[in-house]
Amino acid sequence: MLAYAARRAGLGALQVLAVAVLAFALVELLPGDAAVALAGDQPDPAVIERIRKQMRLDEPALTRLGDWLGGLLTGDFGASLVSGRPVADILTAALEPTLILAGLTMILLLPLSIGLGVAAARHRGRWPDRLITTFSVGLYSVPEFALAVLLVSVFAIGLAWLPPTAVGVPSLLAEPAVLVLPLLVLLARPICSIARLVRAGMIETLDSEYIAHIRRAGVSERRVVFAHALPNAVSPATAQIARTADWLLGGVIVVESVFVIPGLGTALVDAVNARDLPVVQGIAVVFGATTVIVNLAADLVAFRLAPRLEVAR
Amino acid sequence: MNPFAPGPEEGPPGPRNRRTPKAPSKPGAAESRHTRLPDRRTTRRPAGHRTRQRAERFTLIALLALPLCIALAGPFLPIPTGDRTQPFDPAAPWPGTDYLGSSVLDGLLDGGWGIVVTAAAATLLAYLIGLPIGLAAAATRHRWLDEILMRPFDLLLALPSLLLMLLLASIAPPTAWMLVLIVAIVNLPDIARIVRAAALEVAHRPAMEALWLQGEGWWRTAIGYIGRSILPTVAADAGVRLVGAFYLVAAASFLGVGAGPEASDWAVMVDVNRGGIFLSPWGVVLPAAMLVALSVGLNLLFDRLLSRRDRA
Q1: CA of A70 to nearest chain B CA: how many angstroms apart?
Q2: I want to staple B287 with a disulfide (CB 3.0 to 4.6 A). Which of A82, A174, B165, B266 is the partner?
Q3: Partner residue opposite B251 with nearest CB, options A137, A140, A145
Q4: Distance CA B230, CA B197 (A)
C-alpha cells in the first residue's frame, strides 16, 4: 500500500508540474508577439509596452519559467493585466462560492448516486430499475446550461418557487434557496454515470458465488447488500467518482455563469474573454492541481477497497 | 473515463474467472433461489414487452427527429425572414422576438446547423488523428514508442475538458474552424486510449502471431487485421464521442468562446436572450429544449445500439 501510494503521489506531483508548465506555455503559444496579441483589437503602443514590461517578455523564456514556478510555490501568481490586482487576491476572493458549490455537490452526490444504483440493482428489470436506467442514460451528457435555463424557467419563473439567479445575495450559505437549482444542475450529470456504474457492479456482485454463500448462511438481506456486496460493487465506480471532479469543475464554470455566482468559473470566463492571461494561468493551475489531487485520492481509495486491481500504471 | 470503454483489465480470463463459473452447471432447487441464472432472465419475457418496446422506440424517434430535422433542414427552408420589431415583444405572435427584435422562430431554424456540423466535424477530425496514434501505440513492438505516443495524453487528461477548451480558446483566434480543432484536441486523449486498449487485446491473439510467422508486412497486420477487428468497438465509442463533442461545442458557444461573435446558434440564443427571460421566455426555452432533446435522444440511441451489440 505504501509503495503504491508513493508511486502514485510521485505521478501526481509530476502532473501538477506539467499543468503549471502548460499554463506557462500558453504565453509562448500565442501567435506572433505575445504583448501585441494580449493588448486587444486596437493595440495602443503604451498598453503593449506596459504588458511587455509587466510580463517581462523581453527576458528569456526559461528564466521566466523558473520564476513562475518559484512564484507558485510561494503563492505568488503574478498580477492581472486588466485591473493590476494580484492574481492570488482574485483567486481567494472567488474561492468561497466555488468551494461551497463543489463541496455540497460532492456531499450530496455519493449517497444519492450509490443509493439509486443499489435500488436499481435490487429491483433489476422492474419499473424502478427501468426508470432510473432510462433517466441516467438520457441525462448522461445534457449541456448544463440548457438544463439550467429550463429549470429556471419552470421553477423560478413559471412557478416562482425559487430565485432565478444569485444576484444581490451576500453569501450563498445565508440564503440556501439560491443554491437549490445550481446544485440540481451540477448533480444531474455525475449522478447518472455513477449510478449506472454502481448498478452494474452491484448486479455482478450480487450474482457472485460468495454472496450466494452469505445468503445461504442466513445473513439478513440488508447486511448482505450493504456490508458485503457494496464495497466490492463500488470499487469500479471510484475512478468515475474521481472523474466527476473534472465534470464538476467544468460544470461549475457553466453554472456560475448561468446563475451569476461570483466564483472561480466566472472569474475564468471573464479573464478568457478579456485575454487576461495571468488570471487564466492562475485559475488553470488551481483547477488542474485540484483534479490531480482528487484523482490521486480516488485511486488510493480504490486500491484500499480492492487491492487486487492495479488501478494506475 | 468512459463507462462503455473496454478497460485494460478485461484481458483473457484469469485464474479467478476460471475457478468461479458464472452459474453452476447443475443448479439444485435450493441453489437456484440465490444464484440467478442469466438464461432464465432472458428467456422469460413479461407480458406487454412488445408494446413497451414500441413505445420506447417511438419516444426515441420523436426526441431525435424534431431537433435533427430543424437543425439539418432549417437553414434551407424557404421561409421569408420577418421584419424586426421590438426586442422581447410580448405582443408578437408565438414564439415572440429575441433581443434584437427578430422572430425567435428564425433563429431556431438557423441555429441548429452550426452546432451539429461542428460537433460532427470535430469528432471526425479527432478520430482521424487519434485512431492512427492508438493503433501505432498498440501494434508497435517498441515500448518507448508506445510511451512517447501515450504519455502526453495522461497529462492532458489531468485537466478538466472544459478548462482545457477555455485555455486553448484564450490564445486561439475565434473562428469556427478553430472550435472544431479545439474540440478535437480535447477529445483526442480518450480516443487514443480506447483505440489502444482495444487494439492491444487484438494484437496479442494467436492469429497475430500466425500472421507474423507468415511474414506479413506491417500494413497487413496493423491495418488489415487489427484495424478491422477493433472496428465495432470504435464505432460504438464514436457515438459517445459525438455526444461529448456536442456538449463541448454547446458549452463553448454558450460561454462565448471559440466561435466568432457574429455566430448565432441555439446555445448563443440561450445566452443572449437570457436577459429577457421574464418578458419572452420562449426565446430561451425553445433553443434549450432543442439542445436537451437532441442530447438525450442521441444518448438513448447510442445506448440502445450498444446494448443490442452486446447481446448479439
Answers
A1: 21
A2: B266
A3: A145
A4: 10
Cα–Cα distance for residue pair A10/A307, rounded to 1 Å: 19
B269 touches chain A (CB under 8 A): no
B3, B36, B271 ranked by CB distance to A193: nearest: B3
Place of cell 426565446: B283
Question: Using the beta-carbon criterion (under 8 Å), do A144 and B251 form an inter-chain contact?
Answer: yes
pLDDT one-digit tens code per residue, B277-296: 777 777 778 888 888 888 88
Inter-chain residue contact B270 with A26, CB threshold 8 Å: no
**A163 vs A172: CA distance, rounded Å:** 12
Distance from C-alpha of B79 to C-alpha of B76, rounded to nearest angstrom: 9
Best mutation target among A29, A98, A124, A149 (most B Cβ atoms within 10 Å) is A149
How far B286 CA lies from chain A's nearest CA (Å)? 9
A291, A14 contact by CB (below 8 A): no
Closest CA to A164 of A95, A240, A260, A89: A260
Q: Which of B38, B2, B27, B55 is nearest to B311 (CA)?
A: B38
CB–CB contact B278 A197 (8 Å): no
To the nearest 10°, the Cα dihedral for B115, B118, B122, B124? Answer: 110
* B-chain residues near A145 (CB < 8 A): 250-251, 254, 267, 270-271, 288
pLDDT higher than 60, residue B128: yes
Spatial separation of the C-alpha atoms in residues A313 and A11, rounded to whole Å: 10
Task: Tell me if chain B has a CB within 8 Å of the CB of A76.
Answer: no
Please, which residues bridge with residue A79 across strands?
A: A86
Written as nine digits, the cell of A112 is: 444519492
Query: Taking CB atoms and an 8 Å limit, are B299 and A249 in contact across chains?
Result: no
> What percent of chain A clears pLDDT 90, i.e. is strictly above it?
0
Considering the entire predicted model, what is its pTM?
0.77
Tens-digit pLDDT profile for residues A64-110: 777 777 777 777 777 777 777 787 888 888 888 888 888 888 888 88
Nearest-angstrom CA–CA distance, A31 and A10: 34
Grid cell, residue B237, equals: 465509442
* Interfacial A residues in 112-141 facing B (CB < 8 Å): 125, 134, 137-141
Report yes or no: B189 and B156 within 8 Å, Cβ to Cβ. Answer: yes
Q: What are the tens digits of pLDDT across the range A65-75?
A: 777 777 777 77
Residues of A in contact with B250 (CB under 8 A): 143, 145-146
Per DSSP, the residues of A218-238 read T--HHHIIIIIIHHHHHHHHH
